[in-house]
Amino acid sequence: MDLEKQIFHFSELSKLEGNLQWDEIVGVLGGKGANLAKMTSLGLPVPPGFTITTNTCREFLAGNGKLSDHLKKEIKEALSHLEEETGKRLGGSPPLLVSCRSGAKFSMPGMMDTILNLGLNDDVAENFSKETGNRRFVYDSYRRLLQMFGSVVMGIDSEAFENKLAEAKEKRNVKSDTELGADDLYSLTEEFKRIISEHGHLFPQDPYEQIERAIESVFLSWNSKRAIDYREATGIPHHLGTAVNIVTMVFGNTGDNSGTGVAFTRDPATGQRVIFGEYMPNAQGEDVVAGIRTSESLDLLKKDMPEIYRELCESCQKLERYYKDMQDIEFTVEDGKLWILQTRSAKRTAKAAIKVATDMVKEGLKEREDALASVDPEAVKTLLHPYFKHEEKKAALSNGMLAATGLNTSPGAAVGIACFSSAQAQRLAAKSPVVLINKNLQPDDIHGMLASVGLITSEGGATSHAAVVARQFGIPCVSAVPDLEISPDKDSCILGGRHIKEGDWLSVDGSSGEIFIGKLPTEKPTIEEQEDLLTILR
Ligand SMILES: Nc1ncnc2c1ncn2[C@@H]1O[C@H](COP(=O)(O)OP(=O)(O)OP(=O)(O)O)[C@@H](O)[C@H]1O
Ligand SMILES: [Mg+2]
Predict the structure, then answer these.
(1) Contact, 358 vs 535, CB < 8 A?
(2) Band of the pLDDT at 351, cuts 50, 70, 90?
(3) Residue 305 and residue 314: Cα distance in Å, rounded?
(4) Is residue 522 a contact partner of residue 433, using CB atoms and an 8 Å limit?
(5) How many whole angstroms separate alpha carbon 220 and alpha carbon 145?
(6) Which of 227, 342, 368, 412 is least surrounded, with the fewest CB atoms within 10 Å of its CB?
(7) Based on the number of CB atoms within 10 Å of its own CB, is 303 exposed (0-12), middle (13-18) or buried (19 or more)?
(8) 128 and 94 belong to one structural domain
(9) CA of residue 534 relative to chain centroid, distance
């Protein structure tokens, strides 16, 4: 086999398996690519696609910042193979649309870039609308592409697009993106193209150019500030580079019979053996993971599409049994058909890590030594993080100190002064523990999150990347707080009807989702209270 090959289709895993160990394959294809290929060979419903290797990224980053002619040729060949596999054509009918996704050897949740719906342009959108008879879906996809391409490839602040979207919703007096109609979304695509040209760019109509530029940007996102910050904090080497995955698009936004979500095979906060996740009908994956929308629990999928829910649970079990570890799975339902878009070892709190390890030994899924090795000793320290004493909380409740309640997305107790931006959190953290309050937390906020003892957001759910990272680092977090309005100057907020300014003390209970005014006393647990830890060590 030619190990110098730069591109591997998901169906070509066996070529690598004959020559390399799994860990080496993950090094070549990145975790996302290797697992997509593995899921394909396990017979799970994965859309066809291919992976450009991490080695190619390293060469690209060492070069002149442009794809080599040789690589462009290989990409074209891989794309025509994909056209044959899917019976769709780039720029043609039915159109092949793809996503361009990062994916390094070690998972870095949301720290690099992804662009969805590549291949759409003005003509394709018009034709595709006629073919599908679903103009709303097509222009919803197109406006998403323009926003992602504009921000990722052209470096335009995403807020410029988000603000226009907010204006469109205000104009229609609706709360959710899904309530916008085809005409609204068409107008948004025109507005978005205008934003792009105001910033001195032109959206490329050629699908190949779109894909090539997306690949360059995803390679470059390996060296984005947030990716570097995350690697610093987790000890991932800086020289590895990311693979790029080109994946045929499947659509969660075609209507009520479609949707997207994330499922953890066990609860990532507690380790309980229950499928835990979030679902958003009529949406694309980015809405759930980016933390800028608030999704529903998986119960909604169970209620609306019981067959799909059952199939999802079966896939979860299959993957957990295969990998012998708790998984974090992204899925999309397109017109009543389930697709799996990603699986990876799930990030979890230390408490969950120990519970999962202990349970997996009991279930016969893991040997005791492997289970023990799966628990990060650094993370175990967070088990001894303080909690609020029950009586103190009761007293605070009766004294009217409870300001608001949100979703308990990362457990633990935090007491710190309020602040409203990541930059400010970093500055103030030198003097005092900080609670960072933001509308949402995105991967760009990683430095602010790591500087804070607690986090509060008005948007975003438990499976967003921010929540995943908060749990991984043991930072208590309360999300989707309904009564939270941050001032435009970002120096104060209204929280549950109370005015909170920068520097005011708050107590955040990430286990219950409660936020209290002032400093609540905390207590440290003892090692004797850690029953699961003691069990696994015995
Ligand atoms: N081909 C596709 N069809 C439908 N949805 C897709 C496709 N490719 C990616 N997605 C969805 O888009 C979202 C973002 O993709 P991706 O997984 O590449 O990045 P991420 O989740 O933001 O970061 P990472 O997985 O690297 O931590 C995910 O919800 C994913 O499931
Ligand atoms: Mg992902």
Answers:
(1) yes
(2) confident
(3) 14
(4) no
(5) 19
(6) 368
(7) exposed
(8) yes
(9) 33
Question: Six-digit token pair at 83?
Answer: 């056209």
How many domains, the chain? 3
Please indicate, yes or no, if residue 362 is contained in any of the structural domains: no
Residues with CB under 6 A from ligand 1: 32, 47, 99, 101-103, 109-110, 112, 114, 116, 247-250, 284-286, 288-289, 330, 332, 341-342
Give the rounded percent of residues in the chain with a pLDDT score beyond 90: 81
Per-residue model confidence (pLDDT) at position 432: 97
Asked, for residue 18, whether it belongs to a domain, the answer is yes
Are 265 and 237 members of one domain?
no
> Cβ distance 67 to 212 under 8 Å?
yes
Here the CATH number for the domain that contains residue 327 is: 3.30.470.20
Tokens of residue 105, six digits: 């050897």
Question: Is residue 226 over pLDDT 90?
Answer: yes
Each residue's pLDDT tens digit, 468-498: 899 989 899 999 999 899 999 999 999 999 9
Name the residue of 342, 343, 446, 465 to mutate for ligand 1: max ligand atoms within 8 A of Cβ.
342
| pLDDT above 60 (res 72) | yes
Using most ligand atoms within 8 A of CB, pick from 286, 315, 347 the residue to mutate for ligand 1.
286
User: Please, are residues 125 and 138 in contact by the beta-carbon 8 Å criterion?
Assistant: yes
236 and 264 belong to one structural domain:
no
Same domain for 289 and 409?
no
CATH code of the domain in which 31 resides: 3.30.1490.20
Which pLDDT band, with edges at 50, 70 and 90, does 2 fall under? low
Range of the domain at 151: 7-248
Q: Which residue among 288, 315, 346 closes a domain?
A: 346
For residue 3, name the pLDDT band (cuts at 50, 70, 90).
low
Tokens of 535: 């069990």
Does position 377 have pLDDT exceeding 80, yes or no?
no
